[in-house]
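Step 1: inspect the first sequence and its tokens.
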Amino acid sequence: MQDSNRSHESKKGGLGIFILFILILLLLAGAAGVFYASRTQEKPKDLSDTTVKSFDLSEESKMAHRIVDDILLLKRENWQLRDSGRREHRDLLEVSGADVVWTDREVAVGVPVTTELDGASLWVQEHLQNTDVKYINEQKSKWHGMEAWRLDLGIAVKSGKDAERNFTTDTIFFFHHGNMNNRDRDIPKRTKEE
């Protein structure tokens, strides 16, 4: 009698595990379906589409901020980072009158005095290759009265058949920070031709 109770209980246990396994498979299949459906319904944004009255580039902006942060944090031992926080921007497209929304921010990066400011900018640009973040501009600048090097980065959005429009998401100011003493050994020096 005891053996039949044990075998009945073990059958129940095996059936419970089987049902749990099937439920987990169904949940995973459902999640994969929802993910795939959301990816296929979301077509790339084209700013020349006159049927759209508003383009929200907030997610693309956040993605750019994350990529830039990940690259800058590779130097957290040598550089000091200050983020001004994100600001929302709005712009009206001239042709369609559509509203475009994106975010931008300023990041101040203190580097050791032994590091060339334009070399730090070049190092970041090299690490941005093969990402969706686009180089927009760079130039000599000032940051709180100090000599600085400004690097503008952003996102590119399709604007017609063969055109793109850039939106600045990250403005980085490189400046010399006197208290930083870890020497950068991997920052390239720019030649005069660059």
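Step 2: inspect the second sequence and its tokens, then contrast the two.
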Amino acid sequence: MISKVTLAKTAGFCYGVKRAVDGVYGKYNEGKKIATLGPIIHNRQVIEDLQSKGIYSYSRVSDIPKDCVIVIRAHGVGEIVYNEIGKREYLDLTCPFVSKIHKIVSEHYKKGYEIIIVGDKNHPEVIGINGWCNDSATIINDTNYKIDEIFAEKDICVVAQTTINRDFFGEIVQNIKKTCKSTLIFDTICNATKDRQKEADEISRNSDTMIVIGGKESSNTRKLFEISKRNCPNSYHIETIEDLPQTKTFKKIGITAGASTPSSIIEEVVKAMSENLKNEENFAELFEQYGSKTLNNGDIVEGTVVEVRNNEVIVDLGGFKYNGQLAADQLTDDPTLKPSDVVKEGDVIKVYVVGVNDGEGKVVLSRKKVEAMESWNKIKAAYESGEILEGKIIKAVKGGVIALTDGSQVFIPARQASGRFVQDLQSLVGTTVNYKIIEIDERRRRIIGSVRVILEAARKEKEEKFWAEAEVGKRYSGTVKSLTSFGAFVDIGGVDGLVHISELSWNKIKHPSEVVKEGDVLDVYIKDLNAETKKISLGFKKMEDNPWTIAQSKINVGDVVKCKIVRMVPFGAFAEIMPSVDGLIHISQIADRRIEKPEDVLTLGEEVEAKVTDLNWDEKKISLSIRALIPVPEKEEKEEEVPAELQKAETLVYSTDPEVEVEEVIEIEPEETADAE
């Protein structure tokens, strides 16, 4: 007993075939005497019905009676046939997809390209395509076909029969590319064929038996049968209900039909199958799923995403015969996103019907239109309530930027795009911002937003909170906003304070950029503030980082230190013991003999060893002596005793710290003695 019957939504007439059949019957109903150039479609039942009405097919234009309107079928014809028709009345019902191939082949053949057609050389569509390159095309219908090496250095243009198997086409293309260096590939398999073959593949994988309905001469029906047979061994290619298999052992049945199969034949087969359903599923309910839904331009419907391609999304419209096509530029306004970034297979989305069965046999959809309609109402509500919205900046335009919110594009003027002047608006593209609607033009449907009003409101709130809690000594984590020659301005929560250059480092620096840069986060404290003038002085240096504090923990009287001569004065030389910590080597302590000036012995930048002879941390003074490290000769006569007052003068120590005053030195010369020479 049959438990389930699944009917392919793509089963039956494609747009091109339906257009051709309707065109013939329409012309007949006008009372015209007509004849077709070749069978209008590959379906015996339709051909027989047309013959019953006196509509016959002919192989050549010259065979068609002069009083008949000549009908060109969906498969199309070569260029020479139009020349043969001349001024006779004719009705061109060539499928738009096939006409597109004619144009591609004609243009590239005239440019000198060698044409390759992937398809059946005996199929009328392929014969017609070949007629647009003077019947010179190479026609391939075998994956093992060996491309002549003569093509290797030529420009090649490759097209496909619209009903060819997609995988088969891909395999042949790869073989062509291996031999031919300059190749243009045009995937001209029509969308209806792709969708039909994909659905047949899916249904046949989940069925015990597969019924493929269509004429034995129909190329696309044979392709469907091949796909079904590969997945489901119990597959049958039938033309009418009389060809149905008699066995009743199958349970799950899948049904599809070729592009030339009339809906009446499909209906008969489905009805016959549904009569044996175990669950007594009603035939009308089953067949209602097949092509019964009517769509009109402007409809808003829900659909399910069934395939996501590089440049479009295919949408199942739930009951309508054709799937809808949603182009990438109608999916989202964000140019940086691909279709796969926005939707995935299985997603249910709301779409706007732009056009049904247009010139290319599509149902054209737009998601942007739906989102724009819904978003407009949200925007108006947000404007009235003052709600803060979120949007992504998608592009910079003259005078401002465009933010995208729920499908609506909002113009944000340059002066409103940030809390401060932005030189390069392009730098904002790709960022997400919060903004408020400040103006709406209903007539022009123009929306103007502002980021600045939000930032200013937030800043004002922070500023009020800051001044209510601020006090000298309070610490903050602040961000460097800008640098000047005299310091750095730091945002400490809604207000900016100045860290003077002297507060940035214990070392002497020429510019704040030597220590900090914009965006750095600093740990600062309030040194001084004035609520009336709104000026805040900030401190940054830490006592534990004071070089003199560090030196105090490391240097003791009697230590021998390595130091570098950094400055000469008449009374001695200053030597750097560690960064920002200098000691004085008095002139009397430079050598073991009397010298006129420090330069007689020392040079700037010279590294020497000296002994620490005295420390005064309160006044930041360190006394050093090189002389103390010079060995005294054993036979040296006793050195003349130096008066106490002179000793004091010789041991005065001076600091280079700008905050410490330097004492004036008065050098006392000893009295000459008889043996001074």
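Step 3: confirm your contrast with the notes below.
Residues 300-366 form a domain with the OB fold (Dihydrolipoamide Acetyltransferase, E2P) fold (CATH 2.40.50.140). The first strand starts at residue 4 and ends at 7.
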